[in-house]
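pasting for ref. prot 1 ->
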Amino acid sequence: MMLRVSLGTAQVLGLRSIRQAHPPTTAYLMWGEKCRRNCAFCAQARESDSRADLLSRVTWPAFPAQEVISRLPGSGVRRVCVQVVEPGSPREMADLVPLVADLAAGGLPVCVSCFLPSLQMAEALFRAGADGVTLPLDAASAPVYGRVKGGSFAAALAHLERVARAFPGRVGTHLIVGLGESEEEMIRLIDRLVERGVRVGLFAFTPVAGTRMAHHPPPSLEGYRRVQAAHYLIRQGLARAEEFSFAEGRLSDFGPRFPASRLRVLLGDGEAFRTTGCPDCNRPYYNERPGQPVPYNYPHALDREQAEQEVRRLLSSLEAGDPAGTGARRDEGACAGG
């Protein structure tokens, strides 16, 4: 069996030689090719014309699974994340269980990111040794979900919450900012999911050549920072979405308990602007190209100057407004990262 490995992970495992300023702290593996689903933003979508070795901006060369597994111990990574391209049959999905067992036997925590059709499948992955599962919602509203993913947002959300109730503290999701939702829709959904014990990993929409959304603009950095800050305050138990003010769907104020002076203190270490999701996941270059001066998700701890810059950016955007919510980050190339 072959596994695709993010190029950054391949470098960390000694399978490829590349230069990267911020190596991944999680080993990112991809199981399967060409999903049976047809998400408009995804290079692996059924009708996508993108390269088979792409997921988001990251390239994923293939290697024998046992060689990959043998190199994980002692590599320095602290977690394994298996990104599953949804197969076409339950039998194929069942083949994932022994792979997870082999990975977990190496002693590293293993997270599986995929569509799980049932509680029984989630239970099988946990029995095999997975310490967490991620069921990607991606979209934050029913209209956007129907347009970019297809199917029922209500049903997908209900299933995610059902799995989270059955396995408390072990379930997460991915949300993509910039698919067409408002900031209010995204933040209120984050609030609901955090309240129900679902761990949220935030992404910025990334246009990829060959997908149906290849020419859709990514979100503005300022808009993304507002969502990140709201997510941070909510997940830290410091605030609820009901306290925030929105103007035509855009976050305009964090409420009377959060004046600028307090936000500078609460956000001053920069943690709000780092990659979110599973512990020890930093996902370098999933949303941006190497060398891009300011990332959407910082894959490392921010220094004092960076943290202060991002807090200033956030506060300035609240004062000035950013009604369009989109930017000009339109590079559609692939990236040698993650």
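and prot 2 ->
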Amino acid sequence: MRQVDASGIRKVFDLAASLDNPVDLSIGQPDFDVPEACKRRAIEAIESGRNKYTVTQGEASLRSRIAEALRSEFGSFDSPVLVTSGVSGGILLAVLATLNPGDEAIVPDPYFVMYKHLVRLIGAVPVFVDTYPDWRLRADRLESAVTDRTRMLILASPANPTGAVYSKEELESAMEVARRHNLLVLADEIYRDFVYDGPAASVWPMDDRVILLRGFSKSHAMTGWRLGYATGPAEILQAMTTLQQYTFVCAPAPFQWAAVAAFDADPSEQVAAFRERRDFVYAGLKDRFRVEKPRGAFYLFPEAPGGSGTKFVERAASAGVLVIPGGVFSQRDTHFRISYAADRRTLERGLEALNRLAAEGDATPRRATTPRD
């Protein structure tokens, strides 16, 4: 536990509570609500008494619907499904089931902060692979990070905090590295519905050593319902299920029933709205900040004027704008994260303040990097 610091994101949340009407561009959750059909089904489940434990692996009707969706997406699917307490719960189960103390897990940097801490929590070692400055996945960098202790490669696409979406070619090259060294691949696809420039490739069909994690928190705004799911090699899924018996027991029962309706909900309207926000925020920052145009999720990761993400975030907080320092997500503290999961007026206020702060610190406009096609 001494290796695990308090979440830098939670520190910003605590700061928000002390500010009067801050411009909050920090939180990574949708600002729309759960689909009505899912809410009605949850209420019906609660009122009809579906409030007790389910089987550890999850309610059969939900697992069946998940398998059906994956079969439709990939053409074939016959792997086991485990319903987890969010994708975060699935990550914990996966690393507990597969890593020993001293084992190494390769993590592209920047990364979702939980990867680092959960790997360390069980005595394993995260090995960070730099993806600066454009957040691309380079097989030669992955290869150079492999040692005789490497057991896992963690991939997230679309990615938090950068919004990067890996191409099919990048993922295939990464899988070649994994095959060559017999590595497991933990694929976090929680943002899979939030892609804006064409469909996102999935690593799942590329190899049978993939543990795939998806969920409902982002696509259906169920962040507080704690529902995700995992699939992968049968032996590993069985180990994860056994671990769930002794940790989470099962995912929340009434929400499992409700999530069946999520597969009939169409998130395209919300995705289109977030694409517009992405374009608006990127256009509003690119002339003052060095920033890559994100292709997915709902974040931008600009370079901080002056070179210190922490110092710039402190200045932003003093101006009433809440963003997250890049050091929370990286071995570097040179950037900061913006969440554009906010309404247009909030985004306008935030852009005005951030650009003003950048202008105060640097009179020369910064040219944006050109996003890769």
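The longest strand covers residues 150-156.
Residues 363-373 have pLDDT under 50 and may be disordered.
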